[in-house]
Amino acid sequence: MENFESINKNTFGVLFNAVSEGIIVVDTNQIIVATNESANVIFGYSENELKGKHLDILIPKKKHEIHHVHMEKFLQNMSHRLMGQGRDLFGTRKDGSNFPVEVGLNPFKLEDDHYVMAMVIDITLRKKHEHEILMLNTQLESRIQQRTSELQKAVEDLEDEVIKRKTAENKIKESLRKERELNELKTKFLSMVSHEFKTPLTGILTSTTLIGKYTDTEQQKKREKHLKTIAGKVKYLNNILDDFLSVERLETGKVNYKYSHFPLTKTLNEVIYDANMLLKEGQEILYPKQIDDIVLYFDDKILELILTNLVNNAIKYSPEHSVIEVESYEKEDMVHILVKDQGIGIPENEQKHIFNRYFRAENALTNQGTGIGLNIIKSHLENVGGCITFKSKQDVGSTFHVQIPKK
Fold first, then answer.
1. Which of 28, 117, 189, 262 could form an S-S bond across to 106 if both were Cys, CB 3.0 to 4.6 Å?
2. Histidine kinase domain location, by residue (predicted)?
3. Is the pTM of this model over 0.85?
């Protein structure tokens, strides 16, 4: 220390006090041998008050142990470097207060003695500014997040509004479409009803008029022919009315199915007996074989409605001298009924519409019909867990396949 002091007086005195950074010189035992004026001011000591003191006096007590470890490593391999890189360093003032510092270490040798010069900077103001900048950045990030969130919310609200408006627009379009469709159906319905009722009523009127002219006994066959015509026309009108009533009940949900056990033959016999009055010249209905044991638990009136529609359609759309074949069998829990004809068939491009209400294929427009029978059949069967399918080829014929649950 004496060597350093003598050299310090001659060489370093002016330099120490001219440097704005705090300079603290320690020996290898970490004893302070010199401080400049800036260091004294930074740590709150008077001139020469720190000489001879251990460096620990300027370091927070809780950092002494770790500081000793770092200092020993530094002394073993001394080189110019900053202390605490990547860590926050603190100094301790005379009044015991701690403050942040930045320290640079510079080892040197005078004669045979080794020393370390510590360049100390009080970075309290810098840390304050850094903290303020950090706070500003945090606030800025918070504002950005808030604004982003507000913008995102505004975008979501806008998207929701667009979706709502689009939905409302689609609903309006759908309502307009349904209204147009309903108007078209009403027009078609009125036209169809007018035609379907007018034609058979005209036939009934004509036959009634002619019957009155056939008064002789030998004209009995002619009277019977017209009476059969009247009965057939009345039956046709009755079927149409039944169809209309079924549509109304299905639409309003007022269909009440009355289940009972009954043999299939009971209903099928009634349907075929009535259908015989509608047969064209040379037409024949082939009755199904081996069905006496088939018993259903179903609504017999609904089954009669289904079979009447299918058999009457087969008669209507088949030519004279053709065969309508009815088949039935049981498989697992279902009863299968098939009605086959040799009629005009359904065009392939129109088959997907065949169960739509009031739809009639182009090749069937000249025949009487309402276009609601198959729609009614499909609706009833779906209500009770059954189904209807078909295969058809134009100008060859059609086969309609009904499946009804046994229970």
1. 117
2. 192-407
3. no
CB atoms within 10 A of CB 92: 19
pLDDT in tens, the chain (407 residues): 555 555 555 555 666 677 788 999 999 899 999 899 999 999 999 988 999 999 999 999 998 888 888 888 887 777 766 655 657 889 999 999 999 999 888 888 888 888 898 889 999 998 899 889 999 998 888 888 888 888 888 888 899 999 999 999 999 998 888 888 767 766 666 666 655 666 677 777 777 777 777 777 677 777 777 777 777 777 777 767 776 666 666 666 667 888 999 999 999 999 999 898 889 999 999 999 889 999 999 989 889 989 998 999 999 899 999 999 999 999 988 999 999 999 999 888 888 888 887 666 665 555 665 667 888 889 889 888 899 999 999 989 999 999 999 87
Residue with structure tokens 């088959």? Answer: 351
Length of the chain: 407
Phi, psi of 136 (to 5 degrees): -65, -45
3-state SS class at 81: strand
Buried b (16+ CB within 10 A) or exposed e, 213-236: ebeeeeeeeebeebeebbebbebb
HEC-encoded secondary structure of 187-211: HHHHHHHHHHHHHHHHHHHHHHHHH
For the CA atoms of the chain, what is the radius of gyration? 54
CA distances from 281 to 203, 249, 322, 360, 403 (A): 18, 36, 9, 25, 31
Alpha helices (H) along 300-368? 300-316
Opening angle at CA 154, ends 152 and 157, nearest 5: 110
Per-residue tokens: 384 = 């009770």
Element (H, E) at 307: helix 300-316
Give the list of residues 6+ apart from residue 395 with CB closer than 8 angstroms, or none. Answer: 344, 345
Spatial separation of the C-alpha atoms in residues 202 and 194, rounded to whole Å: 12
DSSP-derived secondary structure letter, 8: I
Residue written as token pair 């740590």: 43
Are 315 and 275 in contact by the 8 Å Cβ rule? The answer is: yes
Beta strand 295-298 with 334-340: parallel, antiparallel or unpaired? unpaired
